[in-house]
Amino acid sequence: MTIEQMAEQLGVSKSTVSRALSGKGRIGKETRERVLALAGSEERKKKKVPEKTGNIAVVMPTDAYRTGGEYFHECLIGICEEASARDYDIMITDVTGNDYSGVDRLIRKNKIDGVILTRTMEHDRTIQNLAAMQFPVAVTGSVDNDFVIQVDVDNERASEDLTTYLISRGYRRFAIVLDYMEYAVNRNRYDGFCRALYQKGIPYEWSPLEFGITKYGIIQNLVRELMAKRIDCVVCGDDIICTSLLSAFLAEGYRIPRDIGIASLYNSSNLSCFSPAVTTVNVQTRRVGRMVCNQLLNALTGKEYQKKSYVDYELLVRKSTDRIDMEQECESL
């Protein structure tokens, strides 16, 4: 606002405004205060748009700390690597279910420029609220919201490919063991599993299971149930389930893959350490983290970015599903 505009708004002369702002010349105290108050108000208006903080928030599910899921750790490392390379800092907060209070607090206090969610849920309230306020948000996963930047693995296709491979090895009686089905990744993995069996005309036993991974008694009961149903191959939703289930099979004296084959829809370093090592879907998770951070920072800095990107996967075929070795052992007996 110019001196002329201020004078007109206050009903005083331009020289009066000038003297009040400069602090020189005689002018009444009340008039001086009115001029300075208007000048201060205009200055605050100029600063109304907050400056960039140089921070982005990474939202981790609370169970990632409890179960030690390698996916979240590797993803976070990738995000931090990319952020550091581009002179941004990371603020970590967590979320339980649809409680997004931690994210909301960071936004209200103007602590962050954008948010990365490392897990998506069905009817995800955090995403819905961030999208509604048009706050920059990216996810590692897929959501039905065009506002959100998404970097994902085609988990449905990966599950179909793994199951199709297992069918080609002669397995026919399947079970799939998944954790909480409100997670989008688990729904996608289940759909891919079902599609592979449907296309090959194979019936299946679906064994979704919501369980605390530390409750070994529940795992033991599942092992007995699978063997009672004469399942010849079990597909695990992730490395944590697979580690617990495989440990229980071995503790009960079952031989892998002679008594039952086992495979995982997500790889971790644990699965190569078992004897036998586990057939699995391998993803470069650190690359997922780098890519999602890169796309969000591109959006924040006005650069070109992709709303939806995919990271490749590969099947790692190992001894846990090797029916050839099993058949050779039977022939030698």
Task: Describe this protein's structure.
With 333 residues, this protein is of the alpha/beta class. The protein folds into 3 domains: 3-46; 55-152 and 285-311, Response regulator (Rossmann fold, 3-Layer(aba) Sandwich); 155-278 and 318-332, 3-Layer(aba) Sandwich (Rossmann fold), CATH 3.40.50.2300. Helices cover 46% and strands 16% of the residues. It is built from 13 helices and 12 strands. The protein has helices at 3-10, 14-22, 29-46, 63-67, 70-85, 101-108, 125-132, 155-168, 184-199, 216-228, 239-251, 285-300, 323-332, and strands spanning 55-61, 89-95, 114-117, 137-140, 149-152, 174-177, 205-206, 233-236, 261-264, 279-283, 308-310, 313-316. The strands form 2 sheets. It has a 6-stranded parallel sheet with strand order 2-1-3-4-5-11, sandwiched between helices. A 6-stranded mixed sheet has the order 7-6-8-9-10-12, with helices on both faces. Helix 8 (155-168) packs parallel to helix 9 (184-199) and helix 10 (216-228) packs across helix 11 (239-251). The longest helix has 18 residues, at 29-46. It is rod-shaped, with a radius of gyration of 29 Å.
Measured between the Cα atoms of the first and last residue, the distance is: 95 Å
Number of helices: 13
CATH topology of the largest domain: Rossmann fold
Report the structural category. alpha/beta
Q: How confident is the prediction overall: mean pLDDT?
A: 86
CATH architecture of the largest domain: 3-Layer(aba) Sandwich
User: Into how many domains do the coordinates divide?
Assistant: 3
Sheet with the most strands, sense and barrel status: 6 strands, parallel
Number of strands: 12
In CATH terms, the superfamily of the largest domain is Response regulator
Low-confidence stretches: 328-333
Q: What is the helix fraction of residues, given as a range?
A: 40-55%
- Report strand %: 15-25%
* Rg calc: 29 Å
The side-by-side strand order for the widest beta sheet comes to 2-1-3-4-5-11
CATH class label of the largest domain? Alpha Beta
**Global morphology:** rod-shaped
Topology pattern, helix = H, strand = E? HHHEHHEHEHEEHEHEHEHEEHEEH
